[in-house]
Amino acid sequence: MLRSLILHCLPHDLVIDFHRLHPSKQDKAARSIEDENTSLSVGISEHSSCGGDQLNDILSFIKEEISSLEMAELTNDRRTRTTKLANTCKMAAGLLTTTNIAEFCCFYKSNSHLTGNCKTTLSLAEKKTILKSMGYCFKCTKKGHNAKRCFNKRVKCSLCGSNHATSMHDPTYRPKAKNRTTVAPSTTTVAPATNSCGSTTTLYASALLQTEEVLLQTATIIASSNSSSVPVRIILDGGSQRTFVKENIVARLQPDTHDTVKLRILPFGDSNNSEPKLFKRVRIKLRSLHSDEAIEILAIVVPEICSTAFQYVRSTELDILGLKLADTSYLNETEFEIGMLIGADIYWSIVKDDFKRITDNLVAIDTIFGWTLQGPISTQGTSVTSTNLDVGVIEDNSLESLVDRIERLWVVDDITSNHHKLQVDDIIEKHIRKNGTRYEASLLWRNDECTIDNNRGGALKGLRRSLVKLSEDPEKLRQYDEIIREMISSGVAEICDEAEKTNERTYFMPHRPVGRGEERETTKTRIVFNASARSGGNPSLNDLLWSGPNLLPDILKLILNFRLGKHGITADIERAFLQIELAQKDRKVHRFFWILSLDDLLSIIILQMNRVTFGVTCSPFLLIGALLKHLEDESINFPETCELLKESFYVDDLIVSVDDFEEAVKLFNETREILSRASMNIRKWKSNNEKLRQIFDTNESNNISKHKVLGLIWFMEIDTLAVDLEKLCQQISFDVVTKRTILQTLASVYDPLGMLSPFVIKMKLIFQEAWKQSLAWDEILPASMLHEWKKSVSEIHLLRALTISRYVFDSPHQVEKQLHIFADASPRAYGSVAYIRSRNLDENIRISFLYAKSRLRDKRITLPKMELCADLEAARMRCYLVEKLRVKFDSIYLWTDSKITLYWIRSSKFQKDVFVYNRVQEIQQLTANDNWNHCPGSINPADLLTRGVSAQTLLSCETWLNGPSWLYNDISEWPISDQDFETPMTAVDFCLLTIPQSTTQSDCAVPDNPIQIERFSQYRRLLRVTAYVLRYVDLLRKRVGFKEYLTADELRRAELFWIKRVQFEVFKEEVNALSNRQLVPKCSKILSLNP
């Protein structure tokens, strides 16, 4: 009975093997009938057997099976890791994607695709002859059996749906149609394309049609790059979120690589989230065959888009309409493969508004390349070949959900490439020109011929609501009316003739007053236009405009360079957007309503803006583009100043620093002269130098001691920077603390330089813990977390006193400038911090905090890998600072307290761990080996980033604000180790990848058991780690070598270790008694075993 119960719980395959080795009584009795001579002995032996022997047989069998599996897994460990690597290679596809491991094709004798997917022109008989000669199955095209013994039910032909490979389809086969008046169901076809990881990927589906064919939007265009151009057939698909181009087109064009993007595939009918994969994105220019219209796009490179089949229609149907088709293959019926897919990201930049209905369902759509067709057509009497395409939902990391964005707080950084600046010169030349003394700009319409519905009624309703609200405060209404009257008198806006009738597109912008706070030096109230207002479900003005390429500079770069010069200078352009004239043809979409006078609120007048308006999608691009164009034009007269100004403007704010007083005066005078030539007035000059403030206009509130610079507070008198925490301190609430309020608080801390990182990391850790516990957004925090949170936020107000020097040097003339970057990691976080060490002519040393960055730990990452992530962060930081800062460093030092990662970085040995290998490769590309040094963790300032400190501790921490004290000493006194980190590591390095460690002083003591069993969820993994640790102990004692993989004996030894360990913990008294040659206690559970 016991035997049956145990066998019932085992897998079916194991039960079969057990019965084969240990037959039951019935099996033996059956065999005894066949052999009468042995029947007596069999009966006696069966009667003499006992239940205990059967149980021992089962246990012995199970143990042998487990050992065999362990040895098999050890043998196949390398192959398993390789397979995993291939399966996780970065790759993007479309809606329907099929992935298989690449193998040998019997027909072409090639490794480029599967036999079952081969598109050879061989006849079916010839294919069968080849397969038969090689011993392959006719149905699944696999080796080892024939078609009669093929039990593979998963193989299905994509053409007829039968149980055989697609390559073995009989072309003479015709399926029976149940209803001749309907379209047959779609089936899947596979066209292989081998990716870089050895897997075959397809991204399309075909339809087996009988009576009707559906045309898709296709076009034939000229694709070009800097080196060449080729004709390409494209398909326009509004259901795809991205644009794709085939590898063979890219190979012919050799275009410039823009960047790499990370995409995640969401196949049709599959809710499974596949792994995101990396793709190269290239820049290609598309030009029409019929005109000079062209567009530059960014396309993601994929191996395949769809099959080479084509669609065509009878040309007589189109000749009647006089349409000039974008796709020439419709007419000449030549086979022309799809080389590019245009997705929704640029779809509406190509498609125009006009369309013509040819039949009830067939529509011709106008594009910049010509007319495209879409819809079903009749195929009666016509030979039709279907286009095999079905690209749809692409999930992209750039369209992240709130959950994805939050989890980026602790997800390890991906290895990505640097972004390249878009070519914008042609856009600026097309839309911006100088008209006399001002620049004139035209709007960036997505489609020049698009129409916009008149929203007059909605804008009037909005005005009435605003007037009702403004009437409650007559003074505010008077100020607002003065602003609009001043706009009219200065030519910024003009009154329109209400009786004017026009067929041009017109749009009315709602507007409202916005207060600017008492701290503002200029106008306390300003007018804000809403160009995103919709009416009746129609698109708004902003919906029809393109924002243009991003011309905003890097804020961090501006702030860092602002700290390099002795004299800091800031200013801004007065009413910058209103200094750019709006093209006459675009002014009618900038109309708005206002009252005739304050005495008559019912009389409404129509006004229109004559200048570029803040609140319109493309306005920032037009302003920055006009400013850059002007500085480029004036660089002939003021080369040095214009070059400096190009990198010192953030929209209309000037942030710059210089070393010489005369240079600052020159900058002041020339900047005003340069901008005055574009009818721009730059004002509100600020500086930390009192003499410069006197030269600047004294009427512009130069008595103010502090000033906002890109979100930071600049105390000009003492020349220091601080994080603005005033509003945050006022908003903090202790009444209700939820995950939502924690995130709001974290988002309110704007600290681009990372000055507060050691404190903020504590709050991030609390939020991460709340996230791990799956708390609802508005669920109150548990008591323990609530206490920690309140303790942290109660100290925020103290950090208002934390300041750093704006100027990182003590004088413009430095003998030596060094960059020092420290990296560290803990079980909870990792990060890096940079300092500048300078030495002046008097041999005085100064160390200044420059920049810091920290990230939370991913729970799946072990401590050495965390240290490696910190080192990678430091390497990237080094590359960024060297590239962006306007200073040349004499030497660069990178510091880590991890000897393991230092070995990885300095070693040329291939790392088998993919995670380690990828990051080490990037570190070695970004830095030189001699840049890296080891320093003890106790003197590593980056340690503060990883464990967090209180506000009071941070304020008093000289190491964080001014760097480690030993950096003030001579280099001979630095803690640079002479240890050779390039010698091969022992097995302990592998063990350290798994054994949890801590860098805090409280955890420095080695526990009784160095391996914490509760940290392991898999018994096999526990044994493997234990085996490696025991092996390392043997290495220390015997100094002998070892094999690359674990042996079964080592695993049995590890298992015995834990058996003894558990026995000692459970029967500690008994073990001690027996060790002292005493009897075990009478109450012991093992007393009956007579130990």
TrEMBL record:
Lineage: Eukaryota, Metazoa, Ecdysozoa, Arthropoda, Hexapoda
Entry-linked PANTHER family: PHD-TYPE DOMAIN-CONTAINING PROTEIN, RIBONUCLEASE H
Entries under InterPro entries matching the protein: DNA/RNA_pol_sf, Retrotrans_Pao, Rev_trsase/Diguanyl_cyclase, RT_dom, Znf_CCHC
Protein name: CCHC-type domain-containing protein
Organism: Hermetia illucens
A biological-process GO annotation: DNA biosynthetic process
Signal peptide: none
Keyword Zinc-finger included in the entry's annotation: yes
Keyword hit for ATP-binding: no
Keywords carried by this UniProt record: Metal-binding, Zinc, Zinc-finger
CCHC-type domain location: 137-150
A GO MF label: zinc ion binding
